[in-house]
Amino acid sequence: MIPREEYYLRGIHCSPFSFPMAAKRCTDQLGVIGRDSPVIMHHFIIAFHRDDVKEFNLDGETAQQIVEEWVRRCLPGFLCVIGTHTQGSQGDPNIHCHVIVNSVRLQELPSEMEHPVTVKAGRRFRTSKATFLEMKQILRSLFRRYHLRGWEREDRSGRRVSDRERLASSRGQRKLDRKNEKIRKLGGTVTETEFLTDKEKIRRAVDACIAQCSDEAQLRIMLALEHGISVWDKGELWQYRLEGSDRSFSCNSLGRRYWGNSIRERLERQQQGKEDLFLSSAEPHYEEFPLSREDVSRVLEQQHIRDAAGLRSHMEKLRDTMETCLRILPKYRQIYADAFREFCARRNELRRLRDPRRTERPISWEEYHEEMMRALKKRLHAKEESESLSVEIRGIEEGLPYLEEMLPRLPERLEPEKEPAVVRPSMDREDR
User: Fold this and answer.
1) With a threshold of 0.85, does the pTM exceed it?
2) 73: domain CATH number?
3) Are 39 and 67 contacting, i.e. CB atoms less than 8 angstroms apart?
4) Is the separation of the CB atoms in 121 and 108 below 8 Å?
5) Residue 401 belongs to domain spanning
6) Secondary structure of residue 407 in the 3-state scheme
7) How many domains are there within the chain?
8) 140: Cα separation from own chain's centroid
9) Is there a domain that residue 303 lies in?
10) What is the DSSP letter of 415?
11) Closest to 14 measured CA to CA, from 1, 23, 2
């Protein structure tokens, strides 16, 4: 067990603590076809980039809200549990979310996806390639809305470092530190203080040789003679191998800056006296507005908004909705605070009643569980209402700037589309 300083847990269509019982009850009550299937749960891991914590102040609560919205849009009607870690296994700020989905669908709910999950209630989860790709696109649009980089494995300098390589580097560095400590205690001299993986050795060697070479042939010769690295040219895809190693590494595993066309471009810019493309400051990866154009266009199509007048009336409705939510939000927060205090007081009272030394008739475990679940449901319901209001307010605040930017692009007023007239055949008196 790894102790966590911060952890978030949320259930969809069930309490996170009663998820196993709810999943088993769903499977038994709906009479699932193929109940002997070994797949009873599906596990999704959504990882955020480690630089989002420093650059965009990403926290665990925001990550939990993003993944919860993704689950409600992509997996409607499924029992789910969402758990968010704010630390990795090595203590680094690696925020990631675990989504556990019951394989049996509880109920059929409407979906906004073009390729929705077409599994009926009581059937097991399955998805097509188009559905899975659309789920990825929806997740990327949510990342763009919150100005996040997402799960990109490459940083802005074009270096791609996988989690396995990062873990191997940290383990190797710890072993090297212990070895150097023993050498210092014996009075020896330490010659190596930094552990480098084979991929990192190739990256540093290529970067050092590019700064000294003028063409591609000279680069390969210098890599072979000075660093013992052989290169296989396959067009854009290059492969590198260290001397004495029987394993080769593709440019895709090293990063975008080590592809063949990228290296040729870097050499050409160096001959022209320009700055290295990957060492210069990169442009912001996110869009100017928090909502993507696809999200807003879909909303406008659903509301049948075709002109500026309709968009203004729609924006007025959104502002009125936001004012209403802001007015009733403190009420629901107060209800949640009262429910939380009631829950804590009831829990302490039931614990006292459960103690056989203090009462003549201690309550049973079934009575204790029933009372606790009743108080917990009331508390969770108030919390869900307050959180849904907060999410709605935040969505309206983020969407209004983009709607105002789209207002000049629409025509002022369009005539409503006329329905085609139905031509009915005329009948004379004898036919009638």
Assistant:
1) no
2) 3.30.930.30
3) no
4) yes
5) 293-409
6) helix
7) 3
8) 8
9) yes
10) P
11) 23
For every one of its 432 residues, what pLDDT tens digit does the chain have, with 9 covering 90 and above? Answer: 566 777 888 888 888 888 888 888 887 777 665 455 677 888 998 888 777 777 777 888 888 988 999 988 888 888 899 999 887 665 666 788 999 998 888 888 877 777 777 777 777 787 788 888 888 888 888 887 777 776 555 555 677 777 788 778 888 988 999 999 999 888 888 888 889 899 999 988 988 888 888 888 888 888 888 888 888 887 778 889 998 888 888 888 888 888 888 888 888 888 888 777 666 544 333 333 344 445 555 556 656 666 777 778 878 888 888 888 888 888 877 877 777 777 777 777 777 776 666 555 566 666 766 777 777 777 777 777 777 777 778 777 777 777 777 777 666 665 555 445 544 454 444 544
420 C-beta neighbours (distance < 10 Å), count? 6
Sheet (strand 248-250) strand order? 229-234, 237-242, 248-250
The CA distance from 400 to 390, in Å, is: 16
- 213 and 253 co-located in one domain: yes
C-alpha 229/C-alpha 216 separation (Å) is 14
Q: Pick from 156, 181, 75: which is nearest to 119 by CA? A: 75
99: its two tokens: 């989504």
Cα(240)–Cα(232) distance, integer angstroms: 7
Q: Are 160 and 255 in contact (CB under 8 A)?
A: yes
Alpha helix locations (H) across 232-307?
Answer: 251-254, 260-271, 293-302
Residue 428 within any structural domain of the chain: no
**From CA 405, how far away is CA 174, in angstroms rounded?**
53
Q: How far is the CA of 344 from the CAs of 340, 351, 371, 379, 398, in angstroms?
A: 6, 11, 12, 10, 36
CB burial of 213-234 (b: ≥16 within 10 Å; e: otherwise) equals beeeeebbebbeeebebebeee
Residues 18 and 140 in one domain: yes
- Distance CA(333)–CA(306), nearest Å, equals 38
17 CA to centre of own chain: 23
Residue 82 near residue 99 (C-beta atoms within 8 A):
yes
